[in-house]
Here is the input.
Amino acid sequence: MITSYEELLKFCPNINPKIKKVIDKYGILVTEHYLSLIDLKNPKDPLFKAVIPSISELKINKWELSDPIGDNSSEFKTQKTKMLIHRYPDRVLLLTTNKCAGNCRYCFRKEKVFNNEETIFNTKELEKSLNYIQKTKQLKEVILSGGDPLYMPRKDLYKTLNFIKEKCKHIKTIRIHTRAPIYNPNIITDELSEFLNNFNKKIPLTIITHIIHPKEICDKFITSINKIKCIKLNQNPILKGINDSTECLINLSYELLKAGILPHYLHILDKAKGISHFKVSIKKAQDIVYKMQQQISGHLVPKLILDQPNGYGKVWLNKSFIEKSKIVNGKYEMKIKSTHSNKIALYKED
Here is the structure.
């Protein structure tokens, strides 16, 4: 495991000494399991780039934001407690902890997650958040995020889910976002899987993994994640030098399917501080997803998503197959490109 600059030197003796400044600011955490997946002799290895600090993190652009998706939006007043974000009418985001199983260098909440002070993550704030969920009857979904919910103290995780099950009958589904099993497959114990599987019988549960590259999916991970019997989807950012190619993302989709997980969202990188070296343009991302649509089945193609700054929410950035369209006598006439070739056909709405 790597948790300090000194430990990093043991694995990467030729690392740039300036990396110590990055670690002092943002920390480092690489588990033994994840280390076994990385080619540490190759700085271009995609998993190396994902977890080993870069001096590029010290470059802060003027357009980068401490709150890149508007969690604390003053315009929409979405932060209802220090741990609870209510942006969309039917669902809330519960920030369960600032602890994670590993430090992703591209994390959009890196300033909050890498901060060791847990001043906002406490019993009082959790109870306030749960009370808000209980009294807000329009809610249908609770999303557990963080940090990583599976690094929340187990007693608090169980308490949270039991409270929702017993006291919040208006909640129809729970979502848990996690990368913990990728960093440490042993995090999903028999006790945890039994609890979640029993919970899923009462309230439908969805696990959202954040797998960024096919190399992260190994037999240990597959065994671990499949202990939990529920819907599983993947959301991940598109990252320069890590997964920004059609071939890589197609391979990722097939590896996800082997693990019983469906691709869901592919995110444009948020405008967080110190991560712009991972940025992929919207046009390039659209082109990659468009090529994916031409080469693999639709259920294996993730939706390309932009989470807008200042709390305006997610938008779908699909690159349409429609070349031209017009309305004639109230009905569409469209020139549509084939999904499996570059031929264009005219479609007239009856």
